[in-house]
Specification:
By secondary structure, this protein is α/β, with parallel strands linked by helices. Helices cover 31% and strands 11% of the residues. It has a domain of 178 residues. Helix 3 packs across helix 5. The longest helix has 19 residues.
């Protein structure tokens, strides 16, 4: 069975507020064919998110020029719990796209990594509830009427859910509403989604975001005709842990393990099916994943 992809890119994102390398910074792992057509791995550790975005553009453009389809995986959520677009009264028939467009308008992420993610969370809270909910978590100096350092209350039946469908079955999952402290995937999503949106905008229909634009289904070659890049949300737990090689940073080993795992699955003809839902998945969950919340590859 032929591979669906010719190159694999894994992104380990960061919310650092200054140029940073090493731990708690952006790492990009790339597995692509070398001049001898053998797969070779390379790791990149750009100091800022802006540098990372420029590098990803370069990597994906180069693969497209070589007519090599790439799978890029992101370690942050690409969608929010159902109801956010409606709660913000955003226009458009695709809730996920409306939220992406709104975040892209709101986020300010400077070349030196200074960003306004807490301000974005606070403003969304103001529009949704007028108080410090549902986003929470910030340094004390960033406390506002509509954003508090600690979680204020539980989610009730009339609130936007705390978790997406994909997270309800994952032990220890962190809510996307958490913007600060360990495991604050909300801050990563706020800063990461606009980056993915710009990558998509630069490529148009040649880049598809799973499952929003592909459907939540096993992918075939015909599904990807004319597609140079597929972007998917993933989690580090998907890949077997890899011990760092001599002189290799822990984060480099994480992205290396991911791209090597994806390549092995693709070679064995098992990766395509992982883009599909389980047979017993309720139709309403499938619809929500495809239109609003997204899903995590491998869950």
């Amino acid at each position: 069975m032929a591979r669906l992809f010719n190159a694999y890119v894994a992104v380990h994102w960061s919310t650092a507020t200054k140029p940073t390398t090493g731990p708690d910074s952006v790492w990009i792992g790339v597995l692509k064919r070398d001049v001898r057509f053998r797969f070779a791995f390379e790791a990149h550790n750009p100091a800022t998110r802006g540098q990372a975005e420029a590098l990803l553009n370069e990597i994906l453009t180069d693969r497209a020029k070589r007519r090599e389809r790439a799978l890029i995986t992101l370690d942050f959520p690409l969608g929010f719990p159902r109801g956010l677009a409606a709660g913000l009264k955003l226009p458009g028939e695709a809730p996920w796209r409306a939220v992406w467009d709104q975040l892209t308008k709101m986020v300010r992420d400077r070349p030196d990594n200074v960003n306004n993610r807490f301000g974005v969370g606070s403003e969304i809270n103001r529009r949704l509830t007028g108080g410090p909910f549902p986003f929470w978590g910030c340094p004390p100096r960033d406390t506002l009427t509509t954003l508090q350092p600690k979680r204020g209350r539980d989610h009730g039946p009339d609130d936007i859910p705390e978790f997406r469908h994909v997270e309800t079955g994952v032990k220890g999952a962190m809510p996307i509403w958490k913007l600060y402290y360990n495991g604050a995937v909300g801050g990563q999503a706020i800063l990461g989604i606009p980056m993915v949106s710009r990558l998509k905008q630069a490529r148009g229909e040649a880049m598809k975001v799973w499952p929003f634009e592909t459907g939540w289904k096993a992918l075939t070659e015909s599904d990807l005709a004319g597609v140079d890049v597929v972007a998917a949300e993933t989690a580090g737990a998907m890949a077997p842990p890899a011990a760092p090689a001599a002189g290799e940073a822990k984060e480099a080993a994480i992205v290396r393990a991911m791209v090597e795992h994806l390549a092995r699955l693709d070679e064995a003809g098992k990766l395509a099916a992982m883009f599909g839902s389980a047979k017993d998945t309720p139709p309403e969950v499938i619809e929500t994943a495809e239109t609003e919340e997204g899903w995590t590859l491998g869950v």
